[in-house]
Amino acid sequence: MIVVMKQNFTPEQMAAAVRVMEEGGVKVMVSKGSETTILGAEGSAAGIDRNRLSSLPGVERVMRVSEPFKMANRKYHPDDTVLSLPGGREVGGSRLAVFAGPCSVESREQIVSVASQVRQAGACALRGGAFKPRTSPYSFQGMGTGGIRLLEEARAETGLPIVSEIMSTEDLDLFEEHVDIIQVGARNMQNFDLLKHMGRITKPVLLKRGMSSTIEEWLMSAEYILAAGNPRVILCERGIRTFETYTRNTLDLSAVLAVKRLSHLPVLVDPSHACGQAWMVERMAMAAVAAGADGLIIEVHNDPENALCDGPQSITPEAFQVLMRKLEPVAACVGRRI
Ligand code: PEP
Ligand code: MN
Questions:
Q1: Which backbone phi and psi does 29 adopt, to 5 degrees?
Q2: Contact assessment for residue 273 and residue 248, using Cβ atoms and an 8 Å cutoff
């Protein structure tokens, strides 16, 4: 349930409305938007005296929210959520947020050189996996804690905040202390225990869409994090499984539009994992920006042919620089900038 306050409500009138909602057994989320102030009930609204609430001075109207996601719902929070990142950049504002870097951290030299090149090209965060979710147990599993240390060295050299994927709650302390933006990968989108833990931290969480998840399931996973107390969720569309095998996944760009309508949370697009082929990344990145994505996450490798993970979909730092330039006019078309 949400309560829309009248234009000129007083603080006392709002406090009275909050009281009636709390007496009905819910916590209240206050969203002061550019046009309206909304009180959202967190939890079941069954115990709230709706007639009493509707008749309070200052209350414009009381509405039921039929979707199962509440705190992630745009009805609860009509304005776009804009998150600030360490380093001063934002996700969700008029400037696009582009995260870039290799699939996996492989060496100090590799991560530091890619970091400085993507920073120069305009990236606002460095991605790099240290704990990798690989289909085969015989594939490179990532450098683990050592990889996080190298990401920190790259951060120290470039000033870029670091994004890395957490796979286990065992690594929570490590990530909380050392990683700036914590990625929950597609394979863990419905690891509800991990999501609850992500809700207890204060770092931004990059929540990728599960490869076979509906938009509603994805938003419900975001809801787990929000409901547990962390409002800093960034969604990421990374392609879904379909019958098509030419591409690694099928990039669902309509999901960007759907999510921007259903939710206030920022949405990035990952064309690298969606397509699985480096030559497709540039055009799909442009398409994602045209579709209204708040930014991108792109795999960039100094030597894609010899990458230990996801080489075929990785672009070079030079190609990344070209891509960033080509995004400028597309961004301008949709009222954004790079
Ligand atoms: C990744 O970002 O390297 C990754 C494994 O992504 P996803 O979870 O989308 O497959
Ligand atoms: Mn990858």
A1: -105, 120
A2: yes
Q: What is the pTM of this model?
A: 0.96
Tell me how far the alpha carbon of residue 205 lies from the centroid of ligand 2, in angstroms.
17
Out of 99, 151, 166, 183, mutate this one to test ligand 1's pocket (max ligand atoms within 8 Å of CB): namely 183
Given a contact cutoff of 8 angstroms between Cβ atoms, the answer to whether 184 and 165 are in contact is yes
Instruction: Let me know the angle formed at the C-alpha of 151 by 145 and 155, rounded to the nearest 5 degrees.
Output: 145
Over residues 263-293, the pLDDT tens digits come to 999 999 999 999 999 999 999 999 999 999 9
**Ligand 2 ion: Cβ-proximal residues, 5 Å cutoff:** 103, 310
Q: How far is CA 248 from CA 105, 113, 130, 307, in A?
A: 22, 28, 22, 17
* Distance separating alpha carbons of residues 266 and 256, to the nearest angstrom: 10
Give the pair of three-digit tokens for residue 129. Answer: 């996996």
Q: E strands within the chain?
A: 2-5, 27-32, 37-42, 59-63, 83-84, 90-91, 97-101, 125-127, 162-166, 181-184, 205-208, 233-237, 267-269, 295-299
CB 125 within 8 A of CB 180: yes
d(CA 157, CA 136): 34
